[in-house]
């Protein structure tokens, strides 16, 4: 059964005595903006808040958006993460079968909450609040029908959906209360004439008096022979009067209600005073009759208040889950296999070998993986790309419609030519955006690896790769699909720590190097054997020799007991050698296209990065004597290492090509084997 109380619940039900109505309590998760903890700073560096806001945009209710925008990750246990992923999977299944039935945007949860607080506090409910309650109850009734239809499809759907929807299916929608509200309140929130015989009689009296007053005022204006300008009939404090703009005497006696040099004077004719008094009294009787009708309705709602609270709570919860599912579907995410590492005899055990799907774009030999995320996208880059593409396509559609409209009505040809030129330009931008799709990254980290060292040129995608892994871990932890291809395997991390970018602090008189060290020191003090640590350009910002030595020492410290997995980027070549003296280390590098002198943003696994500076300088036309001198200063050992790495890269590329070719052939061989065996 879905739990009603969680650390992120927006609403909670307080059990009070029968003489004290239950109150709806709003719980606001606090954002870690002002916190100075390494975990809070890491979330800011990873731009976790932007991802939460992107998910929140798929929520339909104000409470659902608020709860999702302020999503914390510190107190989410492994069991809770698994439950959240199961909920999201169930919501994805529901959306696939019901579609538009899960649109929460028509619900005004803020007004429903105000209605609950009003009734529980002893006040009389307003008409709009009562209609918001009706909308909630009718929506839940429709939701129950949709869910039951989806559960009847097959046993798998029933088992998948039951934990998420059991509570809302058990909720009772009081149709009698819905009818009572609809009999009394109109769609716009006003009290109907049929609410009571007294209300109908008093309203008819008001209409009669208003008609008599209008006739009287009209007669006075027509019969006036004064030079004063009697412009119009006006209402002042509910009393009918005449607006006078001249300064001449009037043909009737009256009371001055207000005056002004520009606005004129408001005069209540003496003959209208009795009718105005009677009208005020009739309106007071109408207000009292409306209040009596709303008061009786409030008593009926009070009897159902507990049930209404549950309906609101479960609707908001389902809206939050559906927002996660809609986000996961919109960006073509994959349900991850989230596992909790087990430590046996000081070695990690990831429980099972992870089978690589035959349809996966990243095919590797079967082996135990610590992290396996093929074709992983950075969620914010993918979101920005889709938003830009959607915006330009909308502009193309608008321009096309405008050209069509001008042709229909035969408007200015010159402007049409300019629009056609602009349209061609926009279409070119669409084509360019579609070609420049964000490049995914493969993450395939073996079970034995504790520290991964990534090397490569600037702007090659190293930092984005770190952020992608960090955000993927956080997304899985709160029940989001990971934006990658199937299959995905990722461990549950108790925390994600990051030192990325320039942490220079002028207020604390810290240099860039000191700022990084302070953050890394705090991370090292708080990280555990279940943490993910992301270090960008470790050892940078100081003397290269000292920076490399310090970087090596830091990474060895994290490898020994500092984290479950550490990913570090660096320009220090010495850090690449750690792999050959410590089995906990692994190397990777971002690929660089020397022909076009630009990075490909692909990660080459198991290969240390090599220096490209001298080769790039040669291709850019630097004088040959300078190039030769630089190579001489580098020495033959460095050149031989680079040549060896080049051979490794070449062998790696050939291996990938042959593997893809073999898989292509297997696709054609398998059907033949099946047919032969059947014979």
TrEMBL record:
**Single Gene Ontology BP annotation:** mismatch repair
Q: Which domain of life is it from?
A: Eukaryota
Q: Does the keyword Phosphoprotein apply?
A: no
Q: List residues of the DNA mismatch repair proteins mutS family domain.
A: 531-547
Can the keyword Transferase be found in this entry's annotation? no
Record keywords, A-Z:
ATP-binding, Coiled coil, DNA-binding, Hydrolase, Nucleotide-binding, RNA-binding, rRNA-binding
Q: What is this protein called?
A: DNA mismatch repair proteins mutS family domain-containing protein
What species is this protein from?
A: Brachypodium distachyon (Purple false brome)
